[in-house]
From TrEMBL:
Cofactor(s) needed: [2Fe-2S] cluster; Mo-bis(molybdopterin guanine dinucleotide); [4Fe-4S] cluster
EC class name: oxidoreductase
Family: In the C-terminal section; belongs to the prokaryotic molybdopterin-containing oxidoreductase family.
Residues of the whole record sequence present: 221 to 906 of 906
EC nos: 1.17.1.9
Superkingdom assignment: Bacteria
Protein name: Formate dehydrogenase subunit alpha
Keywords recorded for this protein, A-Z: 2Fe-2S, 4Fe-4S, Iron, Iron-sulfur, Metal-binding, Molybdenum, Oxidoreductase, Repeat
Organism, as annotated: Agrilactobacillus yilanensis
Residue ranges of every copy of the 4Fe-4S Mo/W bis-MGD-type domain listed in the record: 8-63
An annotated Gene Ontology molecular function: formate dehydrogenase (NAD+) activity
Length: 686
């Protein structure tokens, strides 16, 4: 330890990495964060993972933080005053709007920043840009959850709490989720649940760590979740394990579902998923017979061209056995980014105003027009995944990106580059000079979670405080103040004294946040929405007694294969995902030396059988190609993936896997199919 306790103070805040929402004490000496210690939060109970402990603060003091506005002149970034930069930003966006209309502009908001920034960002886009072309990175991770759960249950969020689904449960159905690496503190709690007797069923194409704790591993072929769910439901219905009373009283659409799943016998599904029929029967019995059994899922369900259908299939399963609206049950997506739940709640979506109030509903548009004192564009906007092709076509001219790096995160990188190059004007507000920022006309310095007050909403809908520990760097200003200033200079006056004031406006406009304010958030448990008024303690379990939409809706969903399957030219099915030590683009974890010593390069997991066939040994350099291009990386040979399948993490600039992923989309949520594409592999003999 490089400090004496008496020299420091501790500021409790919320971890800036994954959606678990662990509480952390930042140890501050002067204006520098020198350590991070676990705090006793409701989701983490004094636990922190390696990212929370070591990578939650070092980036804050990094020497390469952006500290002043930059304007690109003759291809070079030069320092500018705030007034010069904001004048240019407001004038350019105004000119583009006047020449081509508000729908020629768009904004991508930041799911790593606080709710209050996200609220003001979407308000700036809707009022000053005059468009609903606003989105956040949920589009490429859990947009299928928002759409799929909203349609079937009436609310697109986790139904129960982390504590509830990992304490005193009889079984856990874990689908397409690798929590020991992606949500490590939840992974630990699932492991503890198994130690206390819960039977764990893992459905995943990879042998993830929790397979070692599982009663059963359904090692399904990638992209077959819908078929698996239909097979499980076929067994449950045929064995008389469905909860007929729950179905009759609380749901609709059951007869169509029942007729559809009749074709998905264990034998048929076993062939599609490439597993044994007996395993499907066994899994269905474990799940249906358990008294308390949550479904927990993640991006292995959502990031498919059938992602929304996969999510609806999870709702179908839970409703069929009446395991929803009850303790220890429910449908529980593990949201990725620390505040991706919040960015969606705050209306950073082309379809929804804050609180999932629909742009398509004229009464909602009028409500916000009245509240914000302006006329709003009534047209549903474009998703981020639609904005990029629209920029290539020339329909989107100006883009404001707050804290996202789509060059690294979005599929088919060359197509993203082309889109950014084609823009007339790009503004990026960031902590660091990212690959995307390099394409900007203006870069505005952002401030990190440790330099601001506000709130994050974790995966279980829990709104928790983010507290300022140190002063912002250089000339950097509050992010929400920058958006308010841009809007003001574009003719929509806006000003906020504090994040608390913004939360008060949020509470007035979102019925589900009506009882939330900063004073109440001093409660160490935060508040879980819906929290409708000052007397409402919040809602740990949703859909008790009645679904948010009234009756739960069964959706009869036939299985459809992924859009690109292996063939002779590209014979391996590739999936992508996160590893324990790093977080997404590594903009934060990559600035922590100890983490880089453990893990500093990309790799591809290849099965022994395929590696032998290709003449590749563990650690060899290999070339991986798809129809989009080629990258080079290192082989990690083993049995984590099955034969004919490979897996790559998405964190590293050497071998940026998104150069080769497939930009095809789910029709409903427009989410990309990161989890399945076809690749070829060859050794590089140096
Ligand atoms: Fe942070 Fe997630 Fe790790 Fe908790 S589990 S410490 S929120 S990265």
């Amino acid at each position: 330890k490089n400090y004496r306790d008496w020299e420091t103070k501790k500021i409790q805040t919320t971890c800036p990495h994954c959606g678990t929402g662990c509480q952390v004490n930042l140890v501050v000496k002067g204006n520098k964060i020198v350590g991070a210690e676990p705090a006793n939060g409701p989701a983490n109970k004094n636990l922190l993972c390696v990212k929370g402990k070591f990578a939650s603060y070092k980036f804050v003091g990094s020497d390469d933080r952006l500290t002043t506005p930059l304007i690109k002149r003759d291809g070079q970034f030069v320092e500018a005053t705030w007034d010069e930069a904001l004048t240019l930003v407001a004038d350019k966006f105004t000119a583009l709007k006047q020449a081509h209309g508000g729908d020629s502009l768009a904004g991508f908001s930041c799911s790593r920043s606080i709710n209050e920034d996200n609220f003001v960002f979407e308000k700036m886009v809707r009022t000053a840009f005059e468009t609903n072309n606003v989105d956040n990175c949920a589009r490429v991770c859990h947009s299928a959850t928002v759409h799929g759960l909203a349609q079937t249950l009436g609310s697109g969020a986790m139904t129960n709490t982390i504590e509830d689904i990992t304490t005193d449960v009889d079984a856990i159905l874990l689908v397409g989720s690798n929590p020991t690496e992606a949500h490590p503190v939840i992974g630990s709690q699932i492991r503890q649940a198994v130690q206390h007797g819960a039977q764990l069923v893992v459905a995943d194409p990879r042998k993830i760590d929790l397979v070692h704790n599982a009663k059963l591993h359904l090692q399904v072929k990638g992209g077959t979740n819908v078929a698996l769910a239909n097979g499980l439901m076929n067994v449950i219905i045929n064995e008389g394990l469905a909860d007929e009373a729950f179905i009759a009283q609380r749901t609709e659409g059951y007869e169509a579902l029942k007729a559809m799943v009749a074709d998905y016998t264990p034998e048929v599904v076993a062939e599609i998923c490439e597993i044994e029929p007996e395993a499907i029967v066994q899994a269905a019995r474990i799940y249906a017979n358990a008294k308390k059994a949550p479904i927990i899922y993640c991006l292995g369900v959502t990031e498919h061209s059938t992602g929304t259908e996969g999510v609806m299939s999870m709702s179908n399963l839970a409703m069929l056995v009446g395991k929803i609206g009850k303790p220890g049950c429910g449908v529980n997506p593990l949201r990725g980014q620390n505040n991706v739940q919040g960015a969606c709640d705050m209306g950073c979506s082309p379809f929804d105003f804050p609180g999932y109030q629909k742009v398509a509903n004229q009464d909602v548009v009028h409500k916000f027009e009245k509240a914000w004192g302006t006329t709003l564009n009534p047209k549903i906007g474009l998703t981020s995944t639609q904005v990029l092709p629209a920029a290539i076509r020339g329909d989107i001219k100006g883009l404001y990106i707050f804290g996202e790096d789509p060059i690294v995160t979005d599929p088919d990188t060359s197509h993203v580059r082309k889109a950014l190059e084609n823009l007339d004007f790009l503004v990026v507000q960031e902590l660091f000079m990212t690959e995307t920022a390099a394409y900007a006309d203006v870069i505005l310095p952002g401030i990190s979670f440790a330099e601001k007050d506000g709130t994050f909403t974790n995966t279980e809908r829990r709104v928790q405080r983010v507290r300022k520990a140190v002063e912002p760097r250089g000339l950097a200003r509050e992010d929400f103040a920058v958006f308010a200033e841009v809007a003001t200079r574009m003719g929509q006056p806006m000003a906020y004294d504090s994040a608390s004031d913004i939360m008060d406006e949020i509470a007035q406009l979102l019925p589900t946040f009506g009882g939330i304010n900063f004073k109440r958030l001093e409660n160490p448990n935060g508040l879980q929405w819906p929290c409708r008024d000052q007397d409402d303690p919040g809602t740990p379990i949703m859909h008790v007694g009645e679904f948010s939409r009234g009756k739960g809706l069964f959706m009869a969903i036939p299985y459809k294969p992924a859009k690109e399957l292996p063939d002779d030219a590209y014979p391996y099915m590739m999936s992508t995902g996160r590893m324990l030590y790093h977080y997404n683009t590594r903009a934060m974890t990559g600035r922590t030396e100890g983490i880089n010593q453990i893990s500093d390069h990309s790799y591809i997991e290849i099965n022994y059988e395929d590696a032998n066939h290709l003449g590749i040994k563990d650690g060899d350099k290999v070339k991986v190609s798809s129809r989009r291009g080629s990258i080079e990386t290192y082989a990690a040979v083993g049995d984590r993936v099955m034969a004919d399948s490979v897996f790559m993490t998405f964190h590293f600039p050497d071998g940026n896997v998104n150069e080769i992923t497939n930009a095809v989309f789910d029709d409903i949520a427009i989410i990309p199919e990161y989890k399945v594409c076809a690749v070829a592999i060859e050794p590089i003999n140096s």
